[in-house]
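Reply to thread "Modeling small-molecule complexes from scratch"

Following up on the discussion above, here's a worked example others can learn from. I took a protein sequence and the SMILES for adenosine-5'-triphosphate and predicted the complex. Inputs first:
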Amino acid sequence: MKETLTGAWRLLSIAWRVDWRKTVTAVVLMMAGAVAAPLLAAFLGLMTDAVVDGRTGDAGGYGVVVAVLAVVTLSFGNFAHVAYFELAELAELHFVEELMTLSNGYEGIEHHERPDYADLVTVLQPESRRFPNALQALFSTFGLLLAVVFTAVLLARLNPLLLLLPLAAVPPLIAGRKAEAITDRARTDTAQPTRIALNLFRLASSARFAGELRVFRMSDELRRRHAELWETTSRGLWHANTRAALVRAAGQTVFGLAYMGAMILVIREAIAGHHGVGDVVLVISLATQVNRQVASAVNLLGDLQRMAGTLRRMDTMRGLVTTAAATAPAQRPSAETAPGAGRQTPPETFTRGIELEGVDFAYPGTDTPVLTDVSLTLPAGSTVAVIGENGAGKSTLVKLLCGLYRPSRGRVLLDGTDLRQLPAEQWRERIAAGFQDFVRYELPARSTVGLGDLPRIDDDTSVRAALEKAHATDLIGQLADGLDTQLGTSYTEGAELSGGQWQKLALGRALMRETPLLLVLDEPTSALDPEAEHHLFERYAAQARTLGASTGAITLLVSHRFSTVRMADLIVVVRDGRIVETGDHTALMKAGGLYAELFELQALAYK
Ligand SMILES: Nc1ncnc2c1ncn2[C@@H]1O[C@H](COP(=O)(O)OP(=O)(O)OP(=O)(O)O)[C@@H](O)[C@H]1O
């Protein structure tokens, strides 16, 4: 109950913050509408007595009041709905924005690796649509409380024993709370299969994967797995809903018995001449209202409890993100760092470059080391290529350099300063990156590229220059409206691009920043043919050397193509999370190790 009350209070303060005037209007209208109902019963009783006694004038007057109260009962709720509908929309927006902020607000990405975090997002996302129900429940509860007090006073006036009727409303309330707890638990328990089923649905309904699904004839298999998961989820929810319905029915039976008792009591007293016909009408009318009040109290409590659960989950999610932020190695002082060392700013230029000292790394929630004892220097002004087999740890190394994760052990130094001591966002402003799993932003082509440097997002000249560097100027000519072309099939008129075209735009985006200190290109051209990649990188490396000579900027390239890799000043060979060779192409070929072996193999394949 405490959680529901706290949740109701928090919901009220959200509504108040969003728009206090509309909140007050909705509460007042709801309360007026709710109080009108027991008043209507009272005047109905008075009207009946006046009719029985032949007081025509009084009966007419009471009749008018009854009619007005009936209109108030029926219509005030609707006016209140108008007031809280907009409130609910704004509250929902507020909630969804907080969800998005929590997902992206913390500088690391460790929390995204946690299954409990993913489960919370699965449950919270659809729950955000329930704000209108929750606000309606909250405002109706105020009205209901007032109506219950009014009803109780009217009943007590006739016979104090009739007060047992509102009291009998308590068991259905308790049962309703228990029932909601049962279904709430089931929602958490079924979050994982729901999430997996939704992923399968996205897979099966996305144009992007349609071809592969057809070729591998996977549609039936996906459907089967989706159905299996859905069945598991539905079965879990069905069991919970059935149990909840039985618990609710048990509570309502108690009230039903009390209702019957009240009727018998009043009718017997009327027959004995202690009450008039008007009182019988009053009690029948009030008892029906109490019945309705109980039913709606159960529903309202359920809605409020559900919203309280949603707010609790939001707190848990906030806690997970905050804990991740507080306990991430990013925030912990490193053993090698002097205690109390202040945070610093990234260097303007590199003179030494980037050094990794004895770096180990395992992904959050796993014990498997992905990088082990990595010690490496990326000299200022150099072009560095990282090669290695699939899963060797190349992209992980890139993520560590971008500060997306921090080493489990060891240090990453930027011109001698520990990356931990730098505010991550300041370091990221000095990075430009093209990732292997780049995002397909469904925006106008100009913005899709311009995003790489937000202040210049719509600057045609900068966007065209970046595309020129990415060797992608021809692509804009192929789009119906050039840079104005809306991309993505979410839009009716949106253009769908090929994988290579999307990748060219992503590369252009990576090249938007003109003077990054670190440019990371993690297989940014895998969709291009080797020759095109070679020419592109050849041109790019020449520019990078000029930039590197003046600012010490480092270019880091991850590629499986040796024709490109051989151009780098330094080649780093990664195997099973360890650096096994470093040097330039000539030195590594002379050494006759893994690099030379892989180079020969690839050269043979092209002969
Ligand atoms: N988010 C993650 N959570 C847990 N393990 C991960 C995660 N991402 C990668 N790994 C694991 O880390 C190891 C290194 O992955 P990484 O992506 O760095 O390899 P890579 O050398 O870039 O491979 P590729 O050439 O295939 O892109 C792999 O064994 C992979 O399974």
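What I'd highlight from this example: The chain is about 65% helix and 10% strand. Confidence is low (pLDDT under 50) at residues 329-342. Questions welcome below.
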